[in-house]
């Protein structure tokens, strides 16, 4: 007797469709070969977003110090949108093109260089600074396509790369403490400890303790929760007003979008060497920060092969480069791969679907501008200090017993916060390295590219404005 087929119910159709969709996702992102699944990848994407969502607050806070100085307007909301959209676009490219579990956003450190050194320090207008970032992104794309990037990397000693990371960490921590009133100007000593009894300063110190505790307990999203905890203290003690709301439909960053193209017309009308130097620093920091981050993340995710190579890494570089150009067009500083992606990898994320989830959450985050605007600027200081701590870890890779490494590295790290400029720190290190190696009688070990880079920085000082 033939058994009648069971009727097809709506629930069965829904289950089949869902299975087909998840199967298509698993096939596209190669779940089976990576020994992962949809649930694990989704959790990993959420974890990555939570650990780096602090950038939605910190980046607008840093950039708003310098934006349109001659036209004081509250553009925090537009900067949040530019930050969220640029992060979503770059991370989406990483997800669908490179198919790697890495998330991107406007980079910490380089945004401080953009705001405090280029715009505030050198007096470069906001559109021209964005144009420099756009040019840097285009150069990065060209270097990725032609593979010239590897030749530049080979010319720079590892100790300077590690020192750059550590120096940027000190620099952004110094800026955070200064803006929060923990460090204040002094005629006698240039800077000194501020009045810790001031409400905002006291809350900042408590926030640093809270964030440190969260980091020490390895709480997921510790930096973000540290910002929220500091802001909550400020609201409870009436140090800052409560947010006016939680959600709102966003307005496009009309004052920011396209400013990079406006700046392109006047990019080199001022000091040619200064602009070349600025573009070089943008390129250098983005290039080596990305190299270091991708290498570390690739090793953690098991992508590094037996020969020490990372197959497909050029696609990740391309995602980073395209993200930078898109970010500049939207009105924000250099976009780069985030080391916080390691949190999602630790949760089991191995495919581009992890990045896809993070990209979707960045896109949704632009709906929370009223809440983000209510977070006082000093509430970001604890996160910046801890980011500085994390970035200092690169210094342990330097051979401090070798003067050829220790002296240039120390000058690089020291001069960034003291000169209030990442560019000056890099210049000192790249000039000192070949000289000290020559004093050691080891000039023959230096690549010609190292001498060229040192000469470029020397010419910058000789031919630049006094």
Structure description:
The chain is mainly alpha-helical. The chain is 66% helix and 3% strand. The strands form two sheets. Strands 1-4 form a two-stranded antiparallel ribbon. The protein has a two-stranded antiparallel sheet with strand order 2-3.
Quote the average pLDDT. Answer: 85
Low-confidence stretches: 1-6, 8-18
Strand content: under 5%
Q: Largest sheet at a glance?
A: 2 strands, antiparallel
The total number of structural domains is 1
In terms of structural class, how would the helical and strand content be classed?
A: mainly alpha
**CA gyration radius, whole angstroms:** 23 Å
Q: Return the string of H and E elements.
A: HHHHHEHHHHEEHHHHHEHHHHHHH
- How many strand elements? 4
- Proportion of residues in helical segments: 55-70%
The outline comes out as: globular
Number of helices: 21
Strands of the widest sheet, in order across it, are: 1-4
**Distance, first to last CA:** 99 Å
Concise overview:
The chain is mostly helical.
Ordered list of secondary-structure elements with their pairings:
Blueprint lengths: L9 H19 L2 H4 L3 H15 L2 H9 L12 H23 L5 E3 L3 H12 L4 H21 L1 H8 L2 H22 L3 E4 L3 E4 L5 H18 L5 H15 L22 H6 L7 H30 L11 H18 L4 E3 L3 H6 L5 H14 L3 H5 L7 H11 L11 H16 L3 H18 L8 H16 L3
Antiparallel strand pairs: 1-4, 2-3
